[in-house]
């Protein structure tokens, strides 16, 4: 009977020791490949017409991935442009972006994996990034500042801390802009667009 009690006590001590061990550290962000959660991601931009009327627009179709080495590729489905006005959406798709021939815009960037390797759950870091934007086969470079928050072991949220400025002439889009202006009967459409984004990225 005494031996049984001793064995029981020993088992209890082993169980308590196991329960008191520190929880395992979450896997580093640099492990594995990450993909954009399209349903939880947004890319917005502001247009200005007639020199003083600002309007917010967005793309709802964003996909892409980030590799373990920090190579990031994102695609914007240009047909998902949403301006709040059906006829304007149609003109943006057919006249400005010509989605029948150019369905997507592509963003590429190289991230520094070391900047995110030790990021703990609920912790955030702000990092500068540089990349390229390609629309209708024309590329332009850009710089952005992004706040990355680790939501869980396998999910992060990347949000622009300030707008990224995109110039129509750098992407050779001024001709399409002039067509939009004529179709809408506007005196002007500003050829400079501030862009913001919020990307949910899942391992």
Task: Describe the secondary-structure layout.
Layout: H1 2-20, E1 34-36, E2 42-49, E3 53-59, E4 62-66, E5 71-77, E6 81-82, H2 86-96, E7 104-110, E8 124-135, E9 138-152, E10 155-160, E11 164-167, H3 174-184, E12 192-202
Antiparallel strand pairs: 1-4, 1-12, 2-3, 2-12, 3-6, 4-5, 5-7, 7-8, 8-9, 9-10, 10-12, 11-12
Helix pairs in contact: 2-3
Description:
Mean pLDDT is 89; it is low at 7-14. The chain starts with a helix and ends with a strand. It has helices at 2-20, 86-96, 174-184; strands spanning 34-36, 42-49, 53-59, 62-66, 71-77, 81-82, 104-110, 124-135, 138-152, 155-160, 164-167, 192-202. Strand 8 (124-135) and strand 9 (138-152) form a beta hairpin. 20% of the residues lie in helices and 43% in strands. By secondary structure, the protein is of the alpha+beta class. Strands 1-4-5-7-8-9-10-12 form an eight-stranded antiparallel barrel.
Beta-strand content bin: 35-45%
Number of helices: 3
> What number is the mean pLDDT?
89
Give me the oligomer status. single chain
Q: State the separation between the terminal residues, measured CA to CA.
A: 53 Å
What would you call the shape?
Answer: elongated
Helix content: 10-25%
**Sheet bearing the most strands, described?**
8 strands, antiparallel, barrel
Sheet/helix structural class: alpha+beta
Radius of gyration: 24 Å
Label this structure with key terms.
alpha+beta, 43% strand, single chain, 12 strands, 203 residues
Explain briefly what this protein structure is.
By secondary structure, this protein is an alpha+beta fold.
């Amino acid at each position: 009977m005494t031996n049984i009690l001793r064995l029981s006590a020993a088992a209890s001590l082993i169980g308590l020791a196991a329960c008191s061990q520190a929880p395992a550290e979450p896997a580093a962000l640099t492990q594995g490949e990450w993909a954009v959660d399209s349903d939880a991601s947004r890319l917005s931009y502001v247009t200005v017409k007639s020199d003083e009327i600002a309007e917010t627009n967005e793309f709802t179709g964003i996909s892409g991935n980030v590799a373990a080495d920090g190579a990031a590729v994102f695609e914007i489905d240009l047909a998902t442009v949403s301006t709040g006005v059906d006829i304007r959406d149609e003109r943006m798709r057919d006249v400005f972006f010509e989605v029948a021939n150019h369905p997507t815009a592509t963003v590429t960037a190289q991230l520094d994996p070391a900047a995110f390797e030790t990021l703990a759950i609920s912790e955030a870091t702000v990092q500068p990034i540089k990349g390229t934007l390609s629309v209708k086969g024309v590329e332009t470079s850009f710089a952005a500042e992004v706040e990355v928050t680790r939501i869980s072991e396998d999910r992060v949220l990347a949000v622009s801390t300030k707008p990224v400025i995109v110039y129509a002439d750098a992407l050779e889009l001024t001709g399409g802009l002039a067509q939009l202006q004529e179709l809408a009967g506007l005196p002007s459409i500003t050829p400079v667009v501030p862009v913001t984004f919020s990307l949910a990225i899942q391992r």
